[in-house]
Amino acid sequence: MVQIDELLNHQAFSYHFYRHTGEPFHQMTASNGITQAVKVRELEFRQGRLEEGCMLIVEKTGDDIALKPVPLKNLSLFGQKTWRFINSMPT
Fold first, then answer.
1. Could you give the CA distance from residue 54 to residue 72 in angstroms, rounded to a whole number?
2. Going by DSSP bridges, is the β-strand pair 56-61/26-29 parallel, antiparallel, or unpaired?
3. Whole-number CA gyration radius for the chain
C-alpha cells in the first residue's frame, strides 16, 4: 500500500505484519531497507483445517528476534468444528 510505504520511509518500524491479501505466509525487507514486512496467512479453514503461516512464533534472544510459522502438526487440533473445545481436550 502506498500509504504504508510512505509511513515506513518516515518512521522505521522493526516489523510490519499484514493479512487480507490472499497471499501465502512470507517475510521480506521493506523498501526502506529496515522494516521486516511479514505477510501472515489468513485465519481461514480450508478443507476444515488452518494453513501453515496463519500463526507465528516470535522468539527473542538478546536483541535478536526470530519469526517462525507454527508447524502444521501443532495446528491439527484446530479444526473448523473443534477449535472452541481445545482447552477442554485432554493433553
1. 10
2. unpaired
3. 16
Write the pLDDT tens digit of every residue in 31-68: 888 888 999 998 888 887 888 888 888 898 998 888 88
Q: How far apart are CA 36 and CA 32, in angstroms?
A: 10
Which residues lie closer than 8 Å to 7 by C-beta, 6 or more apart? none
Q: Name the residue ranges covered by the structural domains of the chain.
A: 2-81
Query: Residue 40 half-sphere exposure, CB side, CA atoms within 13 Å?
Result: 17
* Per-residue H/E/C for the chain: CHHHHHHHHHCCCCEEEECCCCCCCEEEECCCCCCEEEECCCCCCECCECCCCCCEEEEEECCEEEEEECCHHHHCCCECCCHHHHHHCCC
Q: Give the whole-angstrom CA distance, residue 26 versus residue 79.
A: 23
